[in-house]
């Protein structure tokens, strides 16, 4: 026989709400994370759909993506900011999602700890590298063949 | 033999399977994101290095992989909107099942627009 859930109003709790459990502070981090997933999700939908449209649909789509194409985009602060926002929001959103998956499926404390350390390392490495690349990118490197560079580079 | 649990709002139906699909697509997208930041970072190495690696994204096998990736992203995006409607819209839970089929329909329409374009780019040379 299947267990059934009783219908009707829920019984009132038999004891008062306990004081906040150890480790929790005035702000509820899990609630903030839950809200962040939703707000960043909306922004990421716009940012990523725009990214996919410009890089895969417009023009010859994927065939025109090369160094000169990236150089042309990042010459504009608009696309620098677009890609930076996408990088940070997607990495925080994705890392928090992976944290949830680890919490759900890794049952041993030690396994969870190891996976979360790896996740944090991947997060820091990827965000740092990506941010540095966006801001230190050199569209016209000296000595590079001119036909590989954006058209605005001075002929070398 | 274990008894089948009673019907709950989500278990074993559209609600559960959309949750599974959301989790699987999110997991896949995350790992692509790590790789994608690494390959883009090659613009800092040299134009030649970047062009060689990005060139590998243009072969037909990778082209099909990108089609799958875009489908995963589109589903995750539209189903994410559905999750938000379930959470924030007073009638969200009542229509969660219908909204999944709306999501599936929107994914099909979006991919019907994207696939011919992308596959022509990949296979048309």
Q: Indicate the CATH class of the domain at 32-138 in chain A.
A: Mainly Alpha
Biggest chain pair contact, residues each?
A: A-B, 47 and 43 residues
Just name the CATH architecture of chain B: Up-down Bundle
CATH fold-level assignment of the domain at 32-138 in chain A: 3 helical TM bundles of succinate and fumarate reductases
C-alpha end-to-end distance of chain B: 57 Å
Q: What does the radius of gyration of chain A come to?
A: 24 Å
How confident is the prediction overall: mean pLDDT of chain A?
A: 89
Describe the fold and architecture.
- The complex is a heterodimer of chains A (156) and B (125).
- In chain A, α1 (29-57) packs across α3 (77-105) and α3 packs antiparallel against α4.
- Chain A has 156 residues and is mainly α.
- Chain A has a domain at 32-138: Fumarate reductase/succinate dehydrogenase, transmembrane subunit (3 helical TM bundles of succinate and fumarate reductases), CATH 1.20.1300.
- Helices cover 60% and strands 0% of the residues of chain A.
- Chain A is elongated, with a radius of gyration of 24 Å.
- Chain A has helices at 29-57, 67-74, 77-105, 109-136.
- With 125 residues, chain B is mainly α.
- Chain B has one domain (18-123): 3 helical TM bundles of succinate and fumarate reductases (Up-down Bundle), CATH 1.20.1300.
- Chain B is built from four helices and no strands.
- The radius of gyration of chain B is 19 Å and the shape is elongated.
- Chain B starts with 13 loop residues before the first helix and ends with a helix.
- Classes of the chains: A mainly alpha (156), B mainly alpha (125).
- The A-B interface holds A 1-5, 38, 41-42, 44-45, 48-49, 52, 56-57, 60-63, 65-68, 70-71, 87, 90-91, 94-95, 97-98, 101, 122, 126, 129-130, 132-133, 136-138, 141, 144-145, 148-149 and B 3-6, 8, 23, 26-27, 29-30, 33-34, 37-38, 40-41, 43-44, 46-48, 50-51, 54, 57-58, 63, 66, 70, 73, 77, 80-81, 83-84, 87-88, 114, 117-118, 121-122, 125.
